[in-house]
Amino acid sequence: MAERHEKRKAVVLLSGGLDSATVLAIACREGFTPHALSFDYGQRHAIELQSAKRLATMFGAEHSIINFDLRRFGGSALTADIDVPKDRAEAQMASGVPVTYVPARNTIFLSFALGLAEVIGANDIFVGVNVLDYSGYPDCRPEFIDAFQKLAKVATKSGIEGQPVTIHTPLIQMTKAEIIKTGIALGLDYSATSSCYDPSPDGRACGRCDSCQLRRKGFAEAGIPDPTRYQ
């Protein structure tokens, strides 16, 4: 009788946005059993968690949502009473760290993912960071991922026992158009995703924040109709 091989488990950080949804599809294509991990951290656009739930169900992934409140720190337009920038030119978006940066967010998220990975016996974490189409977030750069990879190796039982977690960043050098084309090729329905930083109460995207503009630009450059519901 042929020996049965269990699929490897992977923790996939799933915000409900375009990038994380694509990463979830990629993890499934690569043969992993995905355990999706989302966060309700007091974000202005918490409606994205509805998209995360839908996506986890679509891909048959186990799904956990961790609750904590980064509004207690503030410091970001996503977690404090600070206006989300709108209608910024491409040059503005490419310059400096924007006010939508949430201090240490990816460090926090990856720390939770690392803990979950150890508990469920996963040696792989997938995250949708990207350096080309995101405006200056320090925790989306390869240097950050490399540093966290080294941390994971020395900070965990699995790491010191010679089975360190690998952090996968399949989108890190891709344009938004390339990401969208990849997702479409994998059968991903982008109408199930939510990217807007300042959506209406019924979930319609503003169409004017940095994230909406990058999403619109990506669909246009990919030559694919944008399924987003805009205000």
Describe this structure in words.
By secondary structure, this protein is α/β, with parallel strands linked by helices. The chain has one domain (9-222): 3-Layer(aba) Sandwich (Rossmann fold). Helix content is 36%, strand content 11%. The chain has helices at residues 18-29, 48-58, 90-93, 105-120, 142-155, 157-160, 176-185, 210-222; strands at 9-13, 33-40, 62-67, 124-126, 166-168. It has a five-stranded parallel beta sheet with strand order 3-2-1-4-5, sandwiched between helices. The model has no long low-confidence stretch (mean pLDDT 94).
Which helices and strands, and how do they pair?
Elements: E1 9-13, H1 18-29, E2 33-40, H2 48-58, E3 62-67, H3 90-93, H4 105-120, E4 124-126, H5 142-155, H6 157-160, E5 166-168, H7 176-185, H8 210-222
Parallel strand pairs: 1-2, 1-4, 2-3, 4-5
Helix pairs in contact: 1-7, 7-8
| Radius of gyration over all CA atoms, rounded | 17 Å
Largest sheet: 5 strands, parallel
Strand content: 5-15%
Please give the CATH architecture. Answer: 3-Layer(aba) Sandwich
Strand order of the largest sheet: 3-2-1-4-5
Shape: globular
- Write down the secondary-structure element order: EHEHEHHEHHEHH
CATH class: Alpha Beta
**Extended strand count:** 5
Q: Spans with pLDDT under 50 lasting ≥5 residues?
A: none
Number of domains: 1
Secondary structure class reads alpha/beta
Tags for this entry?
about 230 residues, alpha/beta, Rossmann fold, five-stranded parallel beta sheet
Summarize the model shown.
The chain is an alpha/beta fold. It is 36% helix and 11% strand.
